[in-house]
Amino acid sequence: MEKKCFLVVDDQPLITGALSMLLATEYPGSDVLTANTVDDARNLVSRNSSTADLLVLDLSMPGVVGTSLLEEFVREEPSLKILVLSGLTDRESMVSALTLGAAGFVPKTLDTDLLLTAIRFVLKGGVYLPSEIIEESKRRGFFLDAGAAIEERYGTAPRLTPRQLDVLQELAKGNPIKRIGTNLGLSEGTVKTHVSAIYRAFGARNRTEALIAAHRAGYKVTL
Q1: How far apart, in whole angstroms, are the C-alpha atoms of residue 54 and residue 103?
Q2: What does the pLDDT profile of the chain (223 residues) look like in tens digits?
Q3: What DSSP element (H or E) covers 143?
Q4: How far is CA 102 from each of CA 21, 29, 182, rounded to the nearest angstrom?
Q5: Is the pTM of this model over 0.85?
Q6: Which of 95, 102, 153, 173 is surrounded by the most beta carbons within 10 Å?
Q7: Residue 191: how many other CB atoms lie within 10 Å
C-alpha cells in the first residue's frame, strides 16, 4: 500500500490519538501528524500542505467562529483535501462545509467502518456526503446547481490544455501537489500554476468546486 500523509486537527487529544491509531493501522507506514490548538493547526497545515493526502478537521475548535478555520485553510491551501469531522449533524452545517470546499463531512458519531469508508472515498478524489442527506441533496440538486452556476457564467465548457487535463485527472484521483509533480515529472511550482489555471478556467475556489464543475462540463472526473 502506498504511504500516505494525514493531518488530524481536533482540540480533544483522545480523538486525535484514536484517529492516529486507526489511520496507522489502516495505512501502515504512513505519517499521521496531529494538532490540538488552532495555532498548532495553522503551523501543521503550512508545513505539510504540499505532501498531505488528507486533512481531517474538527469544525468546533476553541477560538474558532463557525467555519472560519475551514475557510482559512481552503483559501490558503485550495488543493488540500479536507474531511470535516464534527459533532454538528444538521444539514445546514454539512452543506455549508461542502459548499466552502470540504471534500467530505462526517459526524463524530460515525462508526469506525463508515469513517474509514469516507476516508477511502475522499482519498480517491470523491466528495463524501453522509447517507442521511444524499437523497435530499439529490432532490435539491446540490451538485447540479453548483455546476450549473459555473456553466452559466461561461456559456460553454472551458477548454484545458493537455497538461492541464493531466493535472485535472491527478486531482480527481485525490493526489496531493507533491505526488502530482512526481507522477507527471513536474516541479511543485509548475503543478500549482496548472492547478491555479484549472481553478480559473472553471471559476472554482478549491479542489472540490473544480471537480464538481469539471464533472458538470463533461470531463470524466470522480464525484
Answers
A1: 9
A2: 678 999 999 999 999 999 999 999 999 999 999 999 999 999 999 999 888 999 999 988 888 888 889 999 988 888 889 999 888 767 777 777 887 888 888 888 878 888 898 898 888 877 787 665 555 555 555 545 444 444 454 445 678 888 988 898 888 887 888 889 999 999 988 998 998 888 888 888 888 788 877 877 777 765 5
A3: helix 142-154
A4: 23, 26, 25
A5: no
A6: 102
A7: 26
How is residue 142 written as a grid cell?
A: 446540490
- Contact of 85 with 108, CB cutoff 8 Å: yes
Contact by Cβ (8 Å): 78, 101: yes
Distance, CA of 80 to CA of 66 (rounded, Å): 20
C-alpha grid cell, residue 56: 481531517
Domains of the chain: 5-137 (3.40.50.2300), 141-216 (1.10.10.10)
One-letter amino acid for residue 8 of the chain: V
